[in-house]
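Thread amino acids onto this structure.
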């Protein structure tokens, strides 16, 4: 993740995926293979072409190599994560029950509850989309390798995750504005919170038998977001 201006190439790739054209079929095929195998090394241009129902040479009309295809898979995964976080933030008052709906959305405790809902959505995404989550954070594909192969631009890599992070920043800023967080830097603390959530998501998989406290996510979120009275 980083701070960068939107990249025209990235937008073109994302539009292709959503349009359902051949470029989109290629990316969908790669994503399906990654979900099934959990190993990017087993995903080749030939296997992608076979899954997409095209010849391998046909792929070159859309993507230079496998790395550039993986980039779009990662872009789409981050877009899906962003939407999940945004939906959670937007729907929270309606899902919190009748009593909560009677409380103004800017009520201090409502802002805290919204932050927790956004973070819970992040953790839920990691559970629902395990292979997609792994490739987003270098478990299967790394931006460094892609950059070294000249398959992607630095701007494309730096833009990854910015919109999703923005949802967390906004939720934390709401708590700060409501006086229920002592954070003095919403962006920096949102990054710390993201790292904490990522660590918890990873460890829940790596150490599934560990006796995790039932409220470990709430403790983590409250501590890293500097929430008061939670």
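Threaded sequence (230 positions):
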């Amino acid at each position: 993740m980083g701070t960068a201006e939107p990249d025209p190439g990235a937008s073109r790739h994302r539009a292709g995926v959503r349009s359902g054209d051949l470029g989109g079929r290629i990316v969908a095929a790669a994503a399906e293979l990654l979900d099934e195998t959990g190993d990017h090394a087993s995903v080749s241009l030939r296997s992608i072409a076979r899954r997409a129902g095209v010849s391998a040479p046909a792929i070159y009309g859309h993507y230079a190599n496998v790395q550039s295809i993986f980039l779009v898979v990662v872009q789409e995964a981050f877009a899906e994560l962003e939407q999940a976080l945004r939906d959670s933030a937007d729907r929270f008052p309606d899902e919190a029950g009748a009593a909560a709906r009677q409380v103004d959305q800017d009520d201090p405790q409502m802002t805290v509850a919204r932050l927790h809902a956004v973070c819970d959505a992040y953790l839920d995404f990691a559970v629902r989309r395990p292979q997609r989550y792994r490739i987003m954070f270098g478990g299967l594909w790394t931006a460094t390798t892609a950059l070294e192969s000249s398959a992607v631009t630095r701007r494309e890599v730096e833009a990854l995750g910015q919109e999703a992070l923005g949802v967390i920043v906004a939720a934390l800023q709401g708590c700060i504005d409501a006086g229920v967080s002592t954070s003095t830097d919403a962006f920096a603390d949102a990054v710390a919170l993201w790292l904490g959530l990522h660590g918890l998501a990873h460890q829940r998989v790596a150490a599934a038998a560990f006796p995790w406290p039932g409220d470990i996510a709430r403790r983590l979120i409250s501590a890293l977001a500097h929430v008061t009275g939670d």
